[in-house]
Amino acid sequence: MKKQLIVPKQIVTVDEYNSILRNSVVEIIDDRIADIYPFNDQSVENFDGEVIREENLTLIPGFVQTHIHLCQTLFRGLADELELLDWLQYKIFPFENAHNPESLRMAAKFGINELITGGTTTILDMGTLRYQEIIFDELIYSGIRAFAGKCMMDLNDLFPAFRAKTSDDLKYTAELALAYHEREGGRIKYGFAPRFVLSCSEALLTETKKMMEDFPGSIFHTHASENKNEIAEVRKKFGKENLEYFDSIGVMDNTTVLAHCIHLNENEINLLKKNDSRVSHCPSSNLKLGSGIANIPEYINRSISVSLGADGAPCNNNLSIFNEMRLAALIQKPIHGASRMNAKTVFRLATIGGAEALNIADETGSIQIGKKADLVLLDLEGPNHTLSENDEDIYSDIVYASSRKDVIHVMIDGRWIVKDGMSLVYDDFEIYYKGQEQLKKLLSRL
Ligand code: GUN
Ligand code: FE
Q1: Sign (positive/negative) of CA torsion 169, 171, 172, 177?
Q2: Does residue 196 have its Cβ closer than 6 Å to ligand 1?
Q3: pLDDT given for residue 374 in this prediction
Q4: Is the CB of 195 under 6 A from ligand 1?
Q5: Atom of ligand 1 nearest to the CA of 291
Q6: Percentage of residues of the chain with pLDDT beyond 90
Q7: Is residue 60 within 8 Å of residue 20, measured between CB atoms?
Protein backbone atom coordinates (compact mmCIF):
# COMPACT_ATOMS: atom_id res chain seq x y z
CA MET A 1 0.00 0.00 0.00
CA LYS A 2 1.40 3.39 -1.02
CA LYS A 3 0.32 6.49 0.90
CA GLN A 4 0.87 10.04 -0.33
CA LEU A 5 -0.19 13.39 1.06
CA ILE A 6 -0.44 16.51 -1.11
CA VAL A 7 -0.28 19.84 0.71
CA PRO A 8 -1.25 22.52 -1.85
CA LYS A 9 -2.09 26.20 -1.57
CA GLN A 10 -5.72 25.51 -2.48
CA ILE A 11 -7.87 22.76 -3.96
CA VAL A 12 -10.30 23.48 -6.80
CA THR A 13 -12.49 20.43 -6.21
CA VAL A 14 -15.08 20.76 -9.02
CA ASP A 15 -17.55 19.04 -6.71
CA GLU A 16 -21.27 19.85 -7.01
CA TYR A 17 -20.84 23.02 -4.92
CA ASN A 18 -17.65 24.09 -6.75
CA SER A 19 -15.92 24.08 -3.37
CA ILE A 20 -12.49 25.63 -3.20
CA LEU A 21 -10.60 24.44 -0.14
CA ARG A 22 -7.75 26.26 1.54
CA ASN A 23 -5.57 24.90 4.33
CA SER A 24 -6.57 21.41 3.30
CA VAL A 25 -4.64 18.31 2.26
CA VAL A 26 -5.41 15.36 0.00
CA GLU A 27 -4.46 11.88 1.13
CA ILE A 28 -3.94 9.30 -1.57
CA ILE A 29 -3.77 5.57 -0.98
CA ASP A 30 -2.50 3.70 -4.04
CA ASP A 31 -4.59 4.96 -6.99
CA ARG A 32 -7.41 6.70 -5.09
CA ILE A 33 -8.19 9.81 -3.09
CA ALA A 34 -8.62 8.34 0.39
CA ASP A 35 -9.30 11.53 2.34
CA ILE A 36 -9.40 15.32 2.21
CA TYR A 37 -9.01 17.11 5.54
CA PRO A 38 -7.95 20.40 7.12
CA PHE A 39 -4.24 21.06 7.24
CA ASN A 40 -2.57 20.49 10.55
CA ASP A 41 1.22 20.77 11.02
CA GLN A 42 1.26 17.85 13.40
CA SER A 43 -0.62 15.42 11.18
CA VAL A 44 1.46 16.41 8.14
CA GLU A 45 4.71 15.86 10.06
CA ASN A 46 3.54 12.51 11.40
CA PHE A 47 2.13 11.28 8.08
CA ASP A 48 3.29 7.70 7.46
CA GLY A 49 3.86 8.08 3.73
CA GLU A 50 5.28 10.48 1.17
CA VAL A 51 4.43 14.15 1.74
CA ILE A 52 4.34 16.49 -1.27
CA ARG A 53 4.42 20.03 0.14
CA GLU A 54 3.59 22.52 -2.60
CA GLU A 55 2.07 25.42 -0.75
CA ASN A 56 2.41 27.78 -3.71
CA LEU A 57 0.59 25.48 -6.15
CA THR A 58 -3.11 25.00 -6.88
CA LEU A 59 -4.48 21.47 -7.01
CA ILE A 60 -7.09 20.81 -9.70
CA PRO A 61 -8.58 17.65 -11.23
CA GLY A 62 -6.77 16.33 -14.29
CA PHE A 63 -8.29 17.54 -17.55
CA VAL A 64 -10.39 15.27 -19.76
CA GLN A 65 -10.28 15.67 -23.56
CA THR A 66 -13.02 13.82 -25.40
CA HIS A 67 -11.75 14.08 -28.98
CA ILE A 68 -8.11 13.41 -29.91
CA HIS A 69 -6.26 11.87 -32.88
CA LEU A 70 -2.89 10.70 -31.52
CA CYS A 71 -1.98 9.21 -34.91
CA GLN A 72 -1.95 12.71 -36.47
CA THR A 73 0.63 14.27 -34.17
CA LEU A 74 3.54 14.00 -36.63
CA PHE A 75 1.50 15.98 -39.18
CA ARG A 76 1.35 19.24 -37.21
CA GLY A 77 1.92 22.17 -39.54
CA LEU A 78 1.69 20.05 -42.69
CA ALA A 79 -1.99 20.63 -43.46
CA ASP A 80 -2.72 24.26 -42.70
CA GLU A 81 -5.22 26.60 -44.41
CA LEU A 82 -7.56 23.90 -45.77
CA GLU A 83 -11.22 23.08 -45.23
CA LEU A 84 -12.23 19.66 -43.91
CA LEU A 85 -12.80 17.62 -47.08
CA ASP A 86 -9.69 18.92 -48.89
CA TRP A 87 -7.71 18.61 -45.65
CA LEU A 88 -8.72 14.93 -45.44
CA GLN A 89 -8.39 14.13 -49.14
CA TYR A 90 -5.07 15.76 -49.92
CA LYS A 91 -3.28 15.61 -46.59
CA ILE A 92 -4.63 13.61 -43.67
CA PHE A 93 -5.84 10.43 -45.38
CA PRO A 94 -2.63 10.03 -47.45
CA PHE A 95 -0.54 10.75 -44.33
CA GLU A 96 -2.42 8.29 -42.10
CA ASN A 97 -2.33 5.73 -44.92
CA ALA A 98 1.49 6.01 -44.98
CA HIS A 99 1.91 5.12 -41.29
CA ASN A 100 3.91 2.01 -40.43
CA PRO A 101 4.22 0.68 -36.87
CA GLU A 102 7.34 2.76 -36.15
CA SER A 103 5.89 6.09 -37.31
CA LEU A 104 2.61 5.40 -35.53
CA ARG A 105 4.46 4.67 -32.30
CA MET A 106 6.31 7.99 -32.48
CA ALA A 107 3.04 9.83 -33.24
CA ALA A 108 1.43 8.26 -30.18
CA LYS A 109 4.39 9.05 -27.90
CA PHE A 110 4.61 12.62 -29.16
CA GLY A 111 0.89 13.21 -28.71
CA ILE A 112 0.60 11.59 -25.29
CA ASN A 113 3.65 13.52 -24.06
CA GLU A 114 2.13 16.82 -25.15
CA LEU A 115 -1.16 15.92 -23.47
CA ILE A 116 0.21 14.79 -20.12
CA THR A 117 2.68 17.65 -19.77
CA GLY A 118 -0.26 19.99 -20.48
CA GLY A 119 -2.32 18.52 -17.63
CA THR A 120 -4.64 16.24 -19.61
CA THR A 121 -5.08 12.97 -17.72
CA THR A 122 -7.92 11.33 -19.68
CA ILE A 123 -8.52 11.17 -23.43
CA LEU A 124 -10.91 9.70 -25.95
CA ASP A 125 -8.77 8.90 -29.01
CA MET A 126 -10.00 8.10 -32.51
CA GLY A 127 -7.07 5.87 -33.53
CA THR A 128 -6.22 5.04 -37.10
CA LEU A 129 -7.06 2.31 -39.59
CA ARG A 130 -4.06 0.01 -39.05
CA TYR A 131 -1.66 -1.04 -36.27
CA GLN A 132 -4.00 0.16 -33.48
CA GLU A 133 -2.30 -2.16 -30.98
CA ILE A 134 0.72 0.18 -31.13
CA ILE A 135 -1.41 3.05 -29.84
CA PHE A 136 -2.76 0.84 -27.04
CA ASP A 137 0.77 -0.19 -26.19
CA GLU A 138 1.79 3.47 -25.70
CA LEU A 139 -1.39 4.34 -23.81
CA ILE A 140 -0.65 1.49 -21.40
CA TYR A 141 3.03 2.40 -21.07
CA SER A 142 2.49 6.13 -20.56
CA GLY A 143 0.07 5.87 -17.65
CA ILE A 144 -2.60 8.12 -19.23
CA ARG A 145 -6.27 7.23 -18.77
CA ALA A 146 -7.82 6.56 -22.16
CA PHE A 147 -10.67 5.34 -24.24
CA ALA A 148 -9.30 4.36 -27.63
CA GLY A 149 -10.10 2.20 -30.60
CA LYS A 150 -9.14 1.60 -34.18
CA CYS A 151 -10.59 4.10 -36.59
CA MET A 152 -13.16 2.25 -38.71
CA MET A 153 -13.64 3.10 -42.37
CA ASP A 154 -15.14 0.84 -45.03
CA LEU A 155 -15.95 3.64 -47.52
CA ASN A 156 -13.65 6.36 -48.77
CA ASP A 157 -14.50 8.28 -51.94
CA LEU A 158 -11.92 10.93 -51.08
CA PHE A 159 -8.93 8.54 -50.88
CA PRO A 160 -10.02 4.99 -51.75
CA ALA A 161 -6.73 3.31 -50.76
CA PHE A 162 -7.43 4.23 -47.14
CA ARG A 163 -10.27 1.96 -46.07
CA ALA A 164 -10.90 -1.63 -45.01
CA LYS A 165 -13.35 -4.35 -45.97
CA THR A 166 -16.41 -4.14 -43.71
CA SER A 167 -15.95 -7.64 -42.33
CA ASP A 168 -12.21 -7.12 -41.72
CA ASP A 169 -12.81 -3.83 -39.94
CA LEU A 170 -15.39 -5.43 -37.65
CA LYS A 171 -13.23 -8.48 -36.99
CA TYR A 172 -10.11 -6.45 -36.14
CA THR A 173 -12.21 -4.16 -33.93
CA ALA A 174 -13.69 -7.11 -32.01
CA GLU A 175 -10.22 -8.57 -31.47
CA LEU A 176 -8.87 -5.26 -30.18
CA ALA A 177 -11.83 -4.69 -27.88
CA LEU A 178 -11.38 -8.18 -26.43
CA ALA A 179 -7.68 -7.56 -25.91
CA TYR A 180 -7.78 -4.00 -24.51
CA HIS A 181 -11.16 -3.07 -22.99
CA GLU A 182 -10.81 -2.63 -19.22
CA ARG A 183 -7.06 -3.19 -19.23
CA GLU A 184 -4.77 -1.76 -16.51
CA GLY A 185 -7.44 -1.97 -13.83
CA GLY A 186 -9.92 -0.12 -16.06
CA ARG A 187 -7.55 2.74 -16.95
CA ILE A 188 -7.80 1.70 -20.60
CA LYS A 189 -11.23 1.21 -22.14
CA TYR A 190 -12.40 0.64 -25.67
CA GLY A 191 -13.74 3.57 -27.68
CA PHE A 192 -15.35 2.21 -30.86
CA ALA A 193 -14.42 4.67 -33.58
CA PRO A 194 -16.32 4.63 -36.87
CA ARG A 195 -14.76 7.77 -38.34
CA PHE A 196 -17.68 9.70 -39.81
CA VAL A 197 -20.79 9.12 -41.84
CA LEU A 198 -19.03 9.48 -45.22
CA SER A 199 -16.47 6.78 -44.36
CA CYS A 200 -18.83 4.18 -42.90
CA SER A 201 -21.47 1.91 -44.39
CA GLU A 202 -24.72 1.53 -42.49
CA ALA A 203 -23.74 -2.07 -41.72
CA LEU A 204 -20.44 -0.97 -40.21
CA LEU A 205 -22.18 1.55 -37.95
CA THR A 206 -24.99 -0.71 -36.80
CA GLU A 207 -22.81 -3.81 -36.34
CA THR A 208 -20.39 -1.73 -34.28
CA LYS A 209 -23.20 -0.54 -32.04
CA LYS A 210 -24.36 -4.13 -31.65
CA MET A 211 -20.82 -5.27 -30.79
CA MET A 212 -20.70 -2.74 -27.95
CA GLU A 213 -23.24 -4.81 -26.00
CA ASP A 214 -20.39 -7.23 -25.27
CA PHE A 215 -18.22 -4.41 -23.89
CA PRO A 216 -20.13 -2.52 -21.19
CA GLY A 217 -18.50 0.78 -20.30
CA SER A 218 -17.23 1.32 -23.85
CA ILE A 219 -17.91 4.41 -25.96
CA PHE A 220 -19.09 4.98 -29.55
CA HIS A 221 -16.95 7.82 -30.91
CA THR A 222 -17.48 9.53 -34.25
CA HIS A 223 -17.44 12.91 -36.03
CA ALA A 224 -20.77 14.54 -36.85
CA SER A 225 -21.99 17.63 -38.67
CA GLU A 226 -18.66 19.40 -38.85
CA ASN A 227 -18.60 21.00 -42.27
CA LYS A 228 -21.27 22.32 -44.65
CA ASN A 229 -19.99 20.38 -47.69
CA GLU A 230 -19.83 17.22 -45.58
CA ILE A 231 -23.48 17.52 -44.52
CA ALA A 232 -24.54 18.41 -48.08
CA GLU A 233 -23.05 15.03 -49.11
CA VAL A 234 -24.91 13.30 -46.29
CA ARG A 235 -28.16 14.96 -47.35
CA LYS A 236 -27.56 13.87 -50.96
CA LYS A 237 -26.87 10.27 -49.93
CA PHE A 238 -29.55 9.74 -47.31
CA GLY A 239 -32.03 12.61 -47.71
CA LYS A 240 -31.41 13.41 -44.05
CA GLU A 241 -29.27 15.52 -41.80
CA ASN A 242 -26.27 13.83 -40.11
CA LEU A 243 -27.84 13.21 -36.70
CA GLU A 244 -31.22 12.33 -38.22
CA TYR A 245 -29.44 9.57 -40.13
CA PHE A 246 -27.55 8.36 -37.03
CA ASP A 247 -30.80 8.32 -35.05
CA SER A 248 -32.66 6.49 -37.83
CA ILE A 249 -30.17 3.61 -37.74
CA GLY A 250 -30.10 3.45 -33.93
CA VAL A 251 -26.53 4.50 -33.17
CA MET A 252 -27.32 7.41 -30.85
CA ASP A 253 -27.55 6.75 -27.13
CA ASN A 254 -25.78 7.71 -23.92
CA THR A 255 -22.54 6.01 -24.97
CA THR A 256 -22.28 8.08 -28.17
CA VAL A 257 -19.72 10.90 -28.27
CA LEU A 258 -20.08 13.11 -31.33
CA ALA A 259 -17.20 15.41 -32.21
CA HIS A 260 -18.19 18.89 -33.46
CA CYS A 261 -22.03 19.01 -33.97
CA ILE A 262 -21.75 22.45 -35.57
CA HIS A 263 -24.49 22.58 -38.19
CA LEU A 264 -27.48 21.06 -36.39
CA ASN A 265 -31.12 21.86 -37.06
CA GLU A 266 -33.71 22.05 -34.27
CA ASN A 267 -34.69 18.41 -34.77
CA GLU A 268 -31.09 17.27 -34.42
CA ILE A 269 -30.65 19.20 -31.17
CA ASN A 270 -33.80 17.45 -29.93
CA LEU A 271 -32.28 14.11 -30.97
CA LEU A 272 -29.14 14.84 -28.93
CA LYS A 273 -31.35 15.48 -25.91
CA LYS A 274 -33.71 12.55 -26.52
CA ASN A 275 -30.84 10.07 -26.90
CA ASP A 276 -28.66 11.61 -24.17
CA SER A 277 -25.77 11.65 -26.65
CA ARG A 278 -22.66 13.70 -25.98
CA VAL A 279 -21.10 16.61 -27.89
CA SER A 280 -17.32 16.94 -27.97
CA HIS A 281 -16.64 20.58 -28.73
CA CYS A 282 -13.34 21.36 -30.47
CA PRO A 283 -13.21 25.14 -30.90
CA SER A 284 -9.65 25.47 -32.27
CA SER A 285 -10.26 22.85 -34.92
CA ASN A 286 -13.64 24.33 -35.81
CA LEU A 287 -12.08 27.75 -36.39
CA LYS A 288 -8.90 26.58 -38.13
CA LEU A 289 -10.71 24.36 -40.65
CA GLY A 290 -13.22 27.17 -41.17
CA SER A 291 -15.98 24.76 -40.12
CA GLY A 292 -18.10 27.10 -38.01
CA ILE A 293 -19.15 27.77 -34.42
CA ALA A 294 -21.32 25.22 -32.63
CA ASN A 295 -24.25 26.55 -30.62
CA ILE A 296 -22.76 25.30 -27.36
CA PRO A 297 -24.68 27.71 -25.07
CA GLU A 298 -27.95 26.30 -26.45
CA TYR A 299 -26.79 22.70 -25.90
CA ILE A 300 -25.81 23.57 -22.34
CA ASN A 301 -29.19 25.32 -21.79
CA ARG A 302 -30.89 22.08 -22.71
CA SER A 303 -28.62 20.06 -20.40
CA ILE A 304 -26.97 18.24 -23.30
CA SER A 305 -23.55 16.83 -22.35
CA VAL A 306 -20.76 19.06 -23.68
CA SER A 307 -17.05 18.44 -23.19
CA LEU A 308 -13.87 19.63 -24.89
CA GLY A 309 -11.20 18.22 -27.18
CA ALA A 310 -8.23 19.54 -29.12
CA ASP A 311 -8.94 17.15 -32.05
CA GLY A 312 -5.69 16.40 -33.95
CA ALA A 313 -2.41 18.30 -34.14
CA PRO A 314 -2.82 19.23 -37.85
CA CYS A 315 -6.15 21.04 -37.33
CA ASN A 316 -5.28 22.96 -34.19
CA ASN A 317 -2.08 22.97 -34.01
CA ASN A 318 -1.78 22.26 -30.29
CA LEU A 319 -3.20 19.63 -27.98
CA SER A 320 -3.53 22.07 -25.07
CA ILE A 321 -6.78 22.12 -23.10
CA PHE A 322 -5.95 25.69 -22.06
CA ASN A 323 -6.37 26.86 -25.66
CA GLU A 324 -9.65 24.98 -25.96
CA MET A 325 -11.05 26.40 -22.70
CA ARG A 326 -10.13 29.95 -23.65
CA LEU A 327 -11.61 29.68 -27.13
CA ALA A 328 -14.70 27.80 -25.96
CA ALA A 329 -15.46 30.82 -23.80
CA LEU A 330 -14.41 33.60 -26.17
CA ILE A 331 -15.95 32.51 -29.48
CA GLN A 332 -19.48 32.52 -28.07
CA LYS A 333 -19.35 36.00 -26.61
CA PRO A 334 -19.82 38.05 -29.79
CA ILE A 335 -22.80 35.84 -30.64
CA HIS A 336 -24.48 35.28 -27.27
CA GLY A 337 -23.16 38.13 -25.12
CA ALA A 338 -20.13 38.56 -22.88
CA SER A 339 -21.74 36.93 -19.85
CA ARG A 340 -22.28 33.56 -21.56
CA MET A 341 -19.82 30.66 -21.27
CA ASN A 342 -18.30 32.01 -18.07
CA ALA A 343 -14.96 30.69 -16.84
CA LYS A 344 -16.41 28.36 -14.22
CA THR A 345 -18.77 26.75 -16.72
CA VAL A 346 -15.94 26.19 -19.18
CA PHE A 347 -13.60 24.80 -16.52
CA ARG A 348 -16.28 22.27 -15.61
CA LEU A 349 -16.63 21.23 -19.29
CA ALA A 350 -12.88 20.49 -19.35
CA THR A 351 -12.94 18.37 -16.17
CA ILE A 352 -16.13 16.82 -14.78
CA GLY A 353 -17.95 17.47 -18.09
CA GLY A 354 -15.49 15.22 -19.91
CA ALA A 355 -15.77 12.53 -17.25
CA GLU A 356 -19.57 12.66 -17.48
CA ALA A 357 -19.43 12.42 -21.28
CA LEU A 358 -17.42 9.21 -20.95
CA ASN A 359 -19.66 7.85 -18.15
CA ILE A 360 -16.73 7.79 -15.71
CA ALA A 361 -17.71 10.71 -13.46
CA ASP A 362 -17.70 8.32 -10.50
CA GLU A 363 -13.99 7.74 -11.17
CA THR A 364 -12.44 11.03 -12.27
CA GLY A 365 -13.13 14.69 -13.22
CA SER A 366 -13.22 16.14 -9.69
CA ILE A 367 -11.29 15.95 -6.44
CA GLN A 368 -13.51 13.94 -4.14
CA ILE A 369 -12.97 11.09 -1.70
CA GLY A 370 -13.12 7.70 -3.39
CA LYS A 371 -12.24 8.92 -6.88
CA LYS A 372 -9.09 8.03 -8.76
CA ALA A 373 -6.13 10.28 -8.02
CA ASP A 374 -5.96 12.09 -11.40
CA LEU A 375 -4.54 15.42 -10.27
CA VAL A 376 -2.70 18.46 -11.59
CA LEU A 377 -0.74 21.06 -9.64
CA LEU A 378 -0.74 24.48 -11.33
CA ASP A 379 1.48 27.45 -10.63
CA LEU A 380 -0.89 30.42 -10.69
CA GLU A 381 1.61 32.84 -9.18
CA GLY A 382 3.54 34.04 -12.20
CA PRO A 383 3.72 37.25 -14.22
CA ASN A 384 0.70 36.37 -16.36
CA HIS A 385 -1.64 35.52 -13.48
CA THR A 386 -4.56 37.08 -11.66
CA LEU A 387 -3.54 38.69 -8.38
CA SER A 388 -6.89 38.35 -6.63
CA GLU A 389 -7.39 35.21 -4.57
CA ASN A 390 -11.19 35.29 -4.52
CA ASP A 391 -12.73 31.92 -5.29
CA GLU A 392 -14.41 33.02 -8.50
CA ASP A 393 -11.22 34.57 -9.81
CA ILE A 394 -9.36 31.24 -9.77
CA TYR A 395 -11.55 29.97 -12.62
CA SER A 396 -10.89 33.15 -14.56
CA ASP A 397 -7.15 32.78 -14.01
CA ILE A 398 -7.15 29.16 -15.23
CA VAL A 399 -9.46 29.63 -18.24
CA TYR A 400 -8.41 33.05 -19.52
CA ALA A 401 -4.84 33.63 -18.32
CA SER A 402 -3.12 30.26 -17.89
CA SER A 403 -1.29 27.99 -20.30
CA ARG A 404 0.29 24.54 -20.40
CA LYS A 405 3.48 26.13 -19.06
CA ASP A 406 1.73 26.56 -15.69
CA VAL A 407 1.37 22.79 -15.30
CA ILE A 408 3.97 21.72 -12.75
CA HIS A 409 3.08 18.20 -11.55
CA VAL A 410 0.63 15.63 -12.92
CA MET A 411 -0.58 12.43 -11.26
CA ILE A 412 -2.71 9.77 -12.95
CA ASP A 413 -4.10 6.76 -11.05
CA GLY A 414 -1.95 7.78 -8.06
CA ARG A 415 1.26 7.72 -10.11
CA TRP A 416 3.37 10.82 -10.84
CA ILE A 417 3.62 11.18 -14.63
CA VAL A 418 4.97 14.74 -14.77
CA LYS A 419 7.17 16.38 -12.14
CA ASP A 420 8.48 19.95 -12.25
CA GLY A 421 7.03 20.39 -15.74
CA MET A 422 9.00 17.43 -17.11
CA SER A 423 7.57 14.16 -18.31
CA LEU A 424 8.71 11.20 -16.21
CA VAL A 425 7.63 8.88 -19.00
CA TYR A 426 9.20 10.33 -22.14
CA ASP A 427 12.35 12.21 -22.97
CA ASP A 428 11.07 15.34 -24.76
CA PHE A 429 14.08 15.73 -27.03
CA GLU A 430 14.48 12.08 -27.86
CA ILE A 431 10.89 11.77 -29.04
CA TYR A 432 11.14 15.06 -30.93
CA TYR A 433 14.14 13.90 -32.95
CA LYS A 434 12.91 10.34 -33.37
CA GLY A 435 9.54 11.73 -34.42
CA GLN A 436 11.25 13.92 -36.99
CA GLU A 437 13.09 10.87 -38.36
CA GLN A 438 9.86 8.89 -38.65
CA LEU A 439 8.07 11.81 -40.31
CA LYS A 440 10.79 12.01 -42.98
CA LYS A 441 10.50 8.29 -43.65
CA LEU A 442 6.71 8.50 -43.75
CA LEU A 443 6.74 11.36 -46.24
CA SER A 444 9.09 9.35 -48.45
CA ARG A 445 6.45 6.58 -48.54
CA LEU A 446 3.75 8.89 -49.98
N1 GUN B 1 -13.82 13.98 -40.04
C2 GUN B 1 -13.37 12.78 -40.45
N3 GUN B 1 -12.09 12.59 -40.10
C4 GUN B 1 -11.72 13.70 -39.45
C5 GUN B 1 -10.49 14.10 -38.84
O6 GUN B 1 -9.47 13.39 -38.83
N7 GUN B 1 -10.49 15.32 -38.24
C8 GUN B 1 -11.58 16.11 -38.23
N9 GUN B 1 -11.50 17.30 -37.64
N10 GUN B 1 -12.72 15.77 -38.81
C11 GUN B 1 -12.79 14.57 -39.41
FE1 FE C 1 -11.37 14.80 -35.28
Answers
A1: positive
A2: yes
A3: 99
A4: yes
A5: 9
A6: 99
A7: no
